[in-house]
Automatic annotation (TrEMBL):
HAMAP family found in the cross-reference section: CinA_B (MF_00226_B)
InterPro entries: CinA, CinA-like_C, CinA_C, CinA_KH, Competence-induced_CinA, MoaB/Mog-like_dom_sf, MoaB/Mog_dom
NCBIfam families registered for this protein in UniProt: cinA_nterm (TIGR00200), molyb_syn (TIGR00177), PncC_domain (TIGR00199), PRK00549.1 (NF001813)
Biological source species: Dethiosulfatibacter aminovorans DSM 17477
Family: Belongs to the CinA family.
Lineage, opening ranks: Bacteria, Bacillati, Bacillota, Tissierellia, Dethiosulfatibacter
Protein name: Putative competence-damage inducible protein
Gene (UniProt): cinA
Cross-referenced Gene3D superfamilies: 3.30.70.2860, CinA-like, MoaB/Mog-like domain
Start and end residues of each MoaB/Mog domain: 4-171
Length: 413
């Protein structure tokens, strides 16, 4: 079965919200072996919505729609499905009571317009919405399946996983399973060149590379009758990637470098303190996102000014006079100072010119120094990142975490 994901909503086209629904649906369909060939987004325009629906069914067996199930006149997704299948809209008492009960719980009177949410194409299977007023529906006619779900992710996600995916399992001809390998310290073209022969000879599994946030992600995907068989197909490729990439690759399946950092700290009973200048707290924030990190993360210092670096971290005034805040020497003293101040095993530091202003010929925008202090020694690296302020900060945060990971892995070999 081949699928198209069709999302309705002008707010998506205007960029007010990200279309995370399509991403989530694609992942879930891939897990049961259903191929997604197209993503489409259409604004709240009747004629364009109808055209998009007809086009989707002309080239896909399964059309999964989100949005357009509300009580207003623009919410016509169900009417479009009814017209496509040449059936009438019929009233469903259970759906009406569902909407009425939700309003009752909020001690609010249900607007008359909400009765629209109780009408569905005749013959459709109604999908109950346990997290909102808009029930969805599903129509399966001669192997062509339409699924209509609400737009809000907190309503759509559980409906998809609890009701839609189990129904679609009968159309599954296997599973599509993928593993991610995160490569740091190498550019995308370099990483791709190192495995080019594997890419050129790929059939099943397939290998895709994409870059961003200072790392390269290799995704290896296999299709097989079961997940276990797919994993077996991936294993030889996995072994070869790990062999070729060596210390530059993470292999636990997550593309979040901070997650690897948190796991390494916890597994090795290490504590960390972070001193940040140009990243302004991003390194600390990335670590704190990981559940259970409180036993490893002791303290974070955002020492943006020279005075803060001296007062809080013990950076020497002469160091700042001789070398400046953006220097290897300052990064070294910041990392050591963070560890000593907090009583941590490891100290991290970032200092740089994030831009877009403030750079000089000697110290241009994008120049960053990162430091890792551990076991009485400090390792410092000089980096130069192009891009916007947010990009420089993001990549610097990932880089100092990656450097820490390398230091830990080297020490615990």
């Amino acid at each position: 079965m081949n699928a198209e994901i069709l999302c309705f909503g002008t707010e998506i086209l205007h960029g007010d919200i990200a279309n995370t629904n399509a991403q989530h649906i694609s992942k879930k369909l891939a897990e049961i072996g259903i191929n997604v060939f197209y993503h489409s987004v259409v604004g709240d325009n009747h004629s364009r919505m109808r055209e998009a629906f007809e086009l989707a069914f002309s080239r896909a067996d399964l059309v999964v729609c989100t949005g357009g199930l509300g009580p207003t006149q623009d919410d016509i997704t169900k009417e479009i499905l009814a017209a496509h299948n040449k059936v009438e809209m019929v009233y469903d008492e259970d759906s009406f009571n569902h909407v009425k009960a939700l309003y009752g719980r909020l001690n609010r009177e249900m607007p008359e317009s909400n009765i629209r949410q109780a009408y569905f194409p005749k013959g459709s299977k109604i999908l109950k919405n346990n997290n909102g007023t808009a029930n969805g529906c599903l129509m399966d006619i001669d192997g062509k399946v339409a699924v209509l779900m609400p737009g809000p992710p907190r309503e759509m996600y559980p409906m998809l996983e609890e009701q839609v995916i189990p129904y679609l399992m009968k159309y599954s001809d296997g599973v599509i399973f993928g593993k991610k390998f995160v490569v740091t310290g190498l550019g995308e073209s370099t990483a791709e060149t190192m495995i080019m022969d594997l890419i050129e000879n790929q059939t099943n599994p397939t290998i895709a590379t994409f870059a961003g946030k200072g790392r390269v992600v290799l995704r290896v995907t296999a299709k097989a009758p079961t997940k276990e068989e797919a994993e077996e197909l991936i294993k030889p490729i996995e072994d070869e990637i790990l062999k070729r990439m060596g210390e530059n690759v993470y292999s636990n399946g997550s593309d979040n470098i901070a997650e690897h950092s948190a796991q390494l700290l916890l597994e090795n009973n290490l504590t960390v303190a972070v001193a940040e200048s140009c990243t302004g707290g991003e390194v600390s924030s990335k670590l704190i996102d990981f559940p259970g990190i409180s036993s490893a993360f002791l303290e974070g210092f955002v020492t943006y000014s020279n005075e803060a670096k001296m007062r809080t971290l013990g950076v020497m005034e002469q160091t700042l006079i001789d070398h400046g805040a953006v220097s290897a020497e300052t990064a070294e003293e910041m990392a050591r100072g963070a560890a000593l101040k907090a009583g941590a095993d490891i100290g991290l530091s970032t200092t740089g010119v994030a831009g877009p202003t403030g750079g000089t010929a000697e110290k241009p925008v994008g120049l960053v120094y990162i430091g890792v202090y551990y076991n009485g020694k400090t390792e410092v690296r000089k980096l130069n990142y192009p891009g916007l302020r947010a990009t420089v900060r993001e990549r610097s945060a990932n880089s100092v975490l990656d450097l820490m990971n390398r230091v830990i892995r080297k020490s615990f070999k």
